[in-house]
Structures are given as structure tokens and as C-alpha cells.
Amino acid sequence: MGRSHSWGDERLSLLSAVGTALTDREVMRHALDQAVSELGGLAGLVHWSCGPAGSRTLRLVLASGLPLSALGGWEEICQDEAPLAPARAVRDGRFVWLPASSGEAAGVGENGRTASGRLPAATTVASVPLTGPDGPVGALSVLTGPREPTPEQAAFLEAVGRWAERRLSRSVAGVGDCDEQPWWQQRPGGSVVQQSLDAVKAGSWEWGIHTGEMRWDRAGLRLLGLPGDYERRIESWLDLIHPEDMPRVMAATEKSLRERSGYEAEYRVRRPDGTTGWVQSRAHLELDENGEPVRMLGKVWDTTESRMARESVGQALRYMSDAFFAVNRDWRITFLNVEAERLVGSAGEVLGRPLWEGPAGTVPELEDRCRRAAADGRPAGFDIRWPTDDRWYHIRLVPVPDGLTAYLTDVTERRTQAARRAEAERVGAEQAARISELGNALAEAVTTEDVVQVMAAHVLPPFDASGLLMLCLEGGRLNVVGSVGYPRAFLSRVDGVPAFGGYRLLNEVLGSRRPRFISSTEEYEQLFPDLSGNPALARKNAWAVLPLIASGNAIGTCTVSFDEPRYLSPDERTLLTALSGMVAQALARARLYDTEHARAQALQRGLLPRVLPSPAALTPAVRYLPASSGTDIGGDWYDVIPLSAERVALVIGDVMGHGLAEAATMGRLRTAVHTLANLELPPEEVLAHLNEVVSDLGDDSFATCLYAVYDPITGYCSLARAGHPPPLIVRPDGSVECLEPTPDPPLGAGEPPFSTVDLRLPDGSLLVMYTDGLVESAARDIDTGIAECTQVLTSEYGRLLTCPPPRPRTSDRRAAGRHGGTDHDRLDRLCDLLVGAMLPTKRLTTDDTALLIARLHGLASGNTAGWPLPEDPVAAGLARAHVREQLEAWGLDELVVTTELLASELVANVVRHARGPTRLRLIRGRSLICEVSDASATTPRIRRAAETDEGGRGLQLVSALSQRWGTRYTAEGKCIWTEQPIAWTGAAP
Q1: What strands, in cross-sheet order, belong to the sheet with 918-924?
Q2: Which stretches of the chain drop beneath a pLDDT of 50?
Q3: Crossing angle, helix 151-175 and helix 24-39, to 10 degrees?
Q4: What separation in angstroms does the CA of 883 have from each of 556, 808, 877, 878, 888?
């Protein structure tokens, strides 16, 4: 404790020793430093009641230990806020220690900020009052930690406060003669500011509005040339003002008092020594508690040199080439040079008037931008079009303390050149983009029609053209290959004209290989009077006729035409000429493709069946769709092959790959299938033979195939698959069944044997066979495609089309025909439904597609009859008796004689050349079928019998009497069959 007291005495003695050598502010700062050190605090503060009379505000006039940014909430404190330590110390007149950041002490000042600013939460404040003649007028405070100051520390702080009171009382007494502004009326750091003011010849002044008293500091007295004993009245100042400037100074003063705003004026003063100079004064008002002005505090500084400099600069500004003007804070024009007078108006008319009353007020957004630049305090620049001369200027706005200046540079020529460059760049970019766009589109064009559509879409719209006519050179004539916007009558006139005679405009363009551009009908008729009727017929009034040159050869012409007269600029003509070369190359490729594709399609059409047969056992419907993308034909095929005994073979296949070779392979396989089917081979053997055919074509040849045989008598369908998608079976109740999805390997990739599936299908069932192009694509696997097909078939509309129609109750051939036609129409619609759902028209496909749908018709049991025959010559007689009896029962009396003879010959052939058991069967369908089977595998052959031969004429007789006949192998041997047409009479069977 003793040590602390000793240090405090030392600190007080130190203050007394240095006090006479330093300024008041520096001494007070030392005192604060000693107080902060003694209390172990963060910072020291001095607050003073610096406001007008009656003010209850304490203002921070000195700070030590912390930056001002950390003391923002302590700059002004209302004395009524007693919870704050400085305010309470002034109110109570004694030492106070309070927390700075507690709820009690962390008050909010008049400015709304938290009193504790950014101080630590545990900060406390120790304050002592500073007393003047009339009581406490300020406070000295130390910001310290959470521990309360000791009594010795509190006593030291009070001693420092008393010392400060004595020093401040001397300072107040010394202000009177020199009118120096008291240091406590300056912000912290004010001494430095004052030194700066002295350096720039600036002084301070104070005017008591009610008393009329006006005081100047020493710097102000020196600036105005006043003696120290001048009369401190407002009149002394007014006597110094130059008479010419008096009205302006008084107007600024009255405005400040009236609006309670700041005061500012620049004027000339006439010093007592006879010299004259320019000064500028700026001040602010202090108001009483009623808001009335009581005092004006301000600064004044010498502007003589700057004024002279401004006048020199003003001369330079006045005659410079760029327009320049200045406005004050009220936006009144204060200066404008000669060039600005040309834009704004003569100086005599516009000086002192608001800027916006003249032409500037009509410039869009100029006022808003000027006000924004003045508010932001930052220069701004932009281009404007001035209304008086309709030229472009770049205006640069520069905020200055007393207003705003503006520089206007004429940039019309620069903008014009820039616009021309931009337009040229834009045109070049557009041309490059059009060429690139057209090139990309032509690269995707495959056919001649595609090229015409690309031209119509990418060339006509950019040029606002309405017509396009493309002619190709073929056989010495120009043939129309595509057109847009031309009437048929005109196309008929130009189609097929001689290439080098008969139509002079086209002949000249094709012969010279140079384009012709015709701007109007008058020009057209003047150049080609022999073609004067063509413009009216074509309904066009301007033309660009371009030669089409590909690989150095003229292949035709392209005409772009317009509904109205049109002059094409050089750039447009150059662009059209360049585009015509690209079009010519694309058209040459497309013509080659069209030729080759037409040949390939003709070949494919020749290889596929033109018309499918319609046997009694089923009603077929088929669709074939070539790939919508790509240029090659595919190898998909299908067929319906009638067999013996009303049986039918259905086949569908796909040669892997695309092209003429694959199409030729498809034709070979289809021919092979027909041959093998006519041999009545079972499905697995047919595929085995086809596998040999494909294997012989090479290791890179593969094909898939689905072969099915339907027997309407038994209702069985035998199927064999080689790598082909499974068929879908739609039963009469609408249910859909898919066969086992795993097939045998494709033809050319596997080895026999191939498996066979036997299915018993009810009458009216549908067999849906297809190639992989229907169900498989890059975006869909085959299982998903089959599932989607099933959904289509089981949909409401799909069920309507798949359900079997009612069978006719009569055997009338016309009724049967109508029934078949109705069912065929339904199956056609079903094909369209499947194709439309699985292959939308806008979706490109890379594979061709074949779809075969067959409605199966079983044969009723009453339409067949069979009998076993003995191995004896009497068998022929028994056969004739069975035939006569059965045909009479069926009402086929007209066929009895021929059928008896056929049956007798077939049975006799078996008895003589084969072995039993022997069996006779009759089948009544669309034709009458007579079958004789035996256990022998020997195939009968027709021989040419000599005149003396007793035998060898039986099969010749069979061939002559029957519509067709043949032999098929069975599991027990063979079967010889004949067919005879039935003449239907309409009687019930």
C-alpha cells in the first residue's frame, strides 16, 4: 500500500514538472496516461460539456490507450443517463465506479449506439468529475478491469482530476484576448488539426447570434489583418466584406439561419492595411433545446492563390476544345466555356440558372446519373446524345466540394466508326454462322429432298426470300428436283427445258457458270424480253440465279427469288455465291444416293413377296419399314407358304448387316426356305439346311430365323428359332404369351440340331412374329421392347383388334370372303398400332423392321374323314366306296367320279409298289384333299410310259385330274396327296 501511494505522489509531481513545457492537450494526455497506469486500466477518457447553453451532452474531447473506433459509443453521452459512469460522476459530483458492459451500465446514447462499443464484457469505468466555477462541467475516466479500484487508486484519480481543473481554469482565462477556440471544443487529436490549419492560413471564429458578439482566433485575426483589440462585433466582420460580394454572403447567412443548415461562402475581404484577398468560410449552427440557433462556429481560410489559379485555369477551360461546365450544390450553372455555350446556351442567359431548365433536362437519365455521381462522390463517365446538335458526347462527371463539373468530348465520329466496325463484324459473324449452320445441315442431308428442305429452312429466311427453284442437269435438260413458293404452271414451263437453249436466263447462268442477280421485274424484262411473261407467271419480282458447280462440273442451277423488288448488297451476293457451292456438293452427293438407294430398294422389293397368299388356315397381315436413318437397305424378310393338308408355313428372318450384299443373302435364304418348305421338311430340319447355306457364305455372315408350321386339323403349331426374337401368342381371351426368350444360336454361328416347340393353339389365336428392329434399339433392350409390345396388345384398343371376329355360319364362298376381308382390315390396323407405338414417326431408327401377324383358323372335325385299307387289291374298291359315300354326305357329288379315280390310282400304286399299313383320308377345306399314306419311304415319280407299257400312267392321270399333288414324309412313311378345287354352292356343310 505504501508503495502505491509513493508511486502516485511521484506521478503527480511529474505532471507538475512538465506542465509548463507542454500544451494543454499534451499535458492532459500525460495525465490520462498516468491515471491509466496507476489503475492498471485499458484506456483514459475526458468528457466535457461542450454544447450550447442548456445542453445536457458530454462530449469526448480526449482519449488515450484505445483507438477512436473502439470508443464509438462514448463520443457523446447524455448527462441524464445516470447509469453511465461519466454522467453519474458529473451528476453526483464524486468518484464513481460502474461496469461498462452490464445491463445497468451499457446504456444507449443519443446516436443509438451501445455505450460500451467494442469493449470487453468485463470492462469497468472509474470516473471523477471535473468542476468549473459553476459546478461539474466534465469527467475524467479510466477504463479498467473487473476488480474495484483501491481507495488509494481512487484518491489518486481524484487528485489528477483536481489538477486538471486547475489547469483548465488557466486555459479558459487565457482564451479571452486571442479568441482561441478552447481545446476541448476540438475532437481528440485536434491539436494536429489546428497546426494544419495554421499551415494553410486557416482560422476559427464564433458568432453569438443573439448577442451579436463575434470572436476570432489568432490565425483568423492574422488572416483578416485585424488587431488584437478589435471590436468583437458582427459589424467588424461585415465591414471587411467587399461590397460586390455582400449580397451573396448575406444570402448564404440568411439561408443557413432559416433552414438550420450549414453555412458556406467565398468572398473578398478588404483588410485595414488596404490589401484585398479572397477567403472562404464554412460553419455550422448550434441549437438550443428548442431548436433555435444560438451560435455559429466556423472556419475561414485564404483562397486568394487558389482563386487566381482557378481564374487561370478558367481561361484555359473557357477556350479548350471540349465543352466544360460547372454547377453548384443547387445544380445552378456557375461556369461554362465557349464550347459549352454552344450546347447549353450563352453565359449571359444560363449562368445562375438550374442546369435542368436547359437542353440537359431533356437528355434521358442525365439528371439521375449526375445526382448519383454527386451523392457517391466518385467520378463517372458515359455517352449521351445531345439534343441541340444530335451528336454523341462522352460526358465525364467529377464531383467537387462545392458542386459538380462536367467535361463533354465529341465522340460522334468515333462511335460511327465503331458502329461500322461492329456492323461489319456482326455481318461477318452472321455470314460465318450461316455458312457453318448450312454446312452442318447439308452434312446431314441424305436425299435430294433433304437438300431442298435445308435450303428452304436455312437460306430463304435470312434473306427474306419467298421462292426456291432447284434444277438438275440430266440428259441435256434441266429437270426440277425441288421447289418452294412457285405455282405448278410455272414449274411445268421450266421443267425439262434444254440445258443450253430454250430458257436464256438459265442457259446463260449454266453456260457461263456465273450468277445473275436481277432486282426487279423491269430489269428482268429488259434483259430477257423473250421471257417477259415469266415473272407474272412465277409471281416473283427479284431473282438470284446461281450456278451449281460440283467437282468442276455444272450440275444445275439454284434460284432464290423474292415477292417484292430487292437489291442484294455485295456482301449478300458474295454469301449466296459461297452457299451455292456448298449446296452443289451436297446435291451431287444426294443425287448419287437417290440413284443407288432407288436401285437397292427396287432389288429389295423384288426379293420380298409382293402379295401374301391367304390360305384357309390363317389370315395374314404384314408391315415392312426400312431404317429411317442410314443409307443402306436391310436384310429382313418374311413369307407365308401354303403346304399340303391345309397346313401353312410362316417364316420371318433377319440377315445381320445392311447393304446390297445382305439384301442378296436375304433373297437366297428366302428361295431356300421355299424349296425346303415344299419338301415338307419339319422346322428343325429346315433351319439345319438354312444353317448350311449361311455357313457357306463366309465366317462373317449371320442370320436369324423363326420358322413355324401350323396344322389347322390338329390345331398344333411347331416352331423353331435360330437367334430370332420369340413370337407373341395372343389367345382368343386376349391373354398374351411369350415363348422362352432363349433361342438357338443364329444361322451361321451354331450347329444342328435345332430345337422345336409344339404348341396347341385354339381357333382364333394370333401369332405375332417380328424382327429385332421393332423391339430393340440403342435406348431400349429387347426384353423391354417385348414387354412394351405386350402392353400394346393388351391395351383396350389392342384387345379390340386382337379378339377374333365371329365366323360365318354358311359355307358360301362370298360370305367367307367378306369374313376374311373384315379380319384382314382389323389385323392391318393392329399392325399400324404396333408400329406406331413401338416406332414413333419422329424417332430415327438404325434398323429395318418386319412384322407378320397371322390369325389362325382351325378346321372343324366334320371336315375330315379317314379309313384304314387292307393290303390287298380289293383296297381300291373299298377306297372308291368310301369316297363316294363321304362326298355324297358333303354334297360334293360333282367331284365323286374324279376323286374315285384319284383314290383308286393312289391305292393301286401303294398295293403294287409299297407296303402297308395303308390309310385313306379326305379333307374338305377351300379345296378337296385326298391323301393315301403307307409305311414305305419310296417317293413315286412320274414316268413317260411307252405305247406298249401296261403301267406307268397312273401318276400321269393323277397329275391331270388334280389341281396339284405331291408327296410328304411322315413319321411312319410317306403320304401322297392331291387337291381339287371345290365349287361352293352355298349349301350348309
Answers
A1: 864-869, 918-924, 927-934, 974-981, 964-969
A2: 1-5, 51-54, 102-117, 172-181, 185-200, 809-815, 948-949, 986-989
A3: 170
A4: 75, 27, 10, 9, 8
In sequence order, the β-bridge partners of residue 382 are 395
HEC per residue, 207-261: EECCCCEEEECHHHHHHHCCCCCCCCEHHHHHHHECHHHHHHHHHHHHHHHHHCC
Sign of CA dihedral 377, 379, 381, 384: positive
Looking at every residue in the chain, the average pLDDT score rounds to 82
What is the Cα–Cα distance from 507 to 33, expressed in whole angstroms?
109
CA distance 326 to 307: 15
Residue 562 has what pLDDT?
94
Distance between CA atoms of residues 134 and 299, nearest Å: 29
Q: What percent of the chain has pLDDT over 90?
A: 23
Phi, psi for 20 (deg, rounded to 5):
-80, -15
pLDDT given at position 21? 52
Per-residue DSSP letters for 809-857? SS--HHHHHHHHHHHHHHHHHHHHHHHHHHS-TTS--SS-EEEEEEEE-
Report whether 558 contacts 550 (CB < 8 A). Answer: no
**CA-to-CA distance for 867 and 885, rounded, in angstroms?**
12
Q: For the chain, what percent of residues have pLDDT higher than 70?
A: 86
Contact status, residue 785 vs residue 775, Cβ threshold 8 Å: yes
Nearest to 402 by CA among 377, 366, 367, 372: 377
Handedness of CA 861, 862, 866, 867 (dihedral sign): positive
Closest by alpha carbon to 402, among 268, 295, 305, 307? 307
Question: Is the pTM here over 0.70, yes or no?
Answer: no
Query: Distance between CA 912 and CA 936 in Å, rounded?
Result: 12
User: Which residues, in sequence order, are CB contacts of 247 under 8 Å at separation 6+?
Assistant: none
Which pLDDT value is given to residue 851? Answer: 94
Site of grid cell 442451277: 557
Q: Residue 309: its pLDDT value, please?
A: 74
- Helical residues (DSSP H) of 755-812, grouped into ranges: 772-775, 782-793, 796-802
Pairing verdict, β 403-410 and 323-328: antiparallel
| Calpha distance 293→876 (Å, rounded) | 150
CA distances from 353 to 11, 346, 356, 362 (A): 65, 12, 9, 16
Q: How far apart are CA 333 and CA 339, in angstroms?
A: 15
**How does pLDDT run across 596-618, given as a tens digit for each residue?**
877 777 777 777 888 888 888 99
Return d(Cα 752, Cα 195) in angstroms, integer.
116
DSSP 269-299: EE-TTS-EEEEEEEEEEEE-TTS-EEEEEEE
pLDDT at position 111 is: 40
| Beta-sheet pairing, 716-722 with 757-760 | antiparallel
Residues 222/228/234/239 CA torsion (nearest 10 deg): -60
Distances (CA, A) of 396 to 76, 312, 360, 415, 691: 41, 21, 14, 16, 90
Grid coordinates standing for 89? Answer: 460522476
What would the DSSP string read from start to end of 146-197? SSPPPHHHHHHHHHHHHHHHHHHHHHHHHHTTTTPPPGGGSPTTHHHHHHHH
Q: What is the pLDDT of residue 609?
A: 85
DSSP 322: S
Dihedrals phi, psi of 466, to nearest 5 degrees: -120, -10
pLDDT of residue 17: 61
SS3 (DSSP) at 406: strand
Would you call the peptide bond into 917 cis, given omega within 30 degrees of 0 as the criterion? yes
CA–CA distances in Å: residue 937 to residues 868, 915, 971, 975 = 18, 10, 10, 9
Q: What is the pLDDT of residue 930?
A: 93
Give the model's pLDDT for residue 437.
84
Give yes or no for a contact between 718 and 682, defined as CB atoms under 8 angstroms apart.
yes
Query: Which residue is listed with cell 477504463?
Result: 143
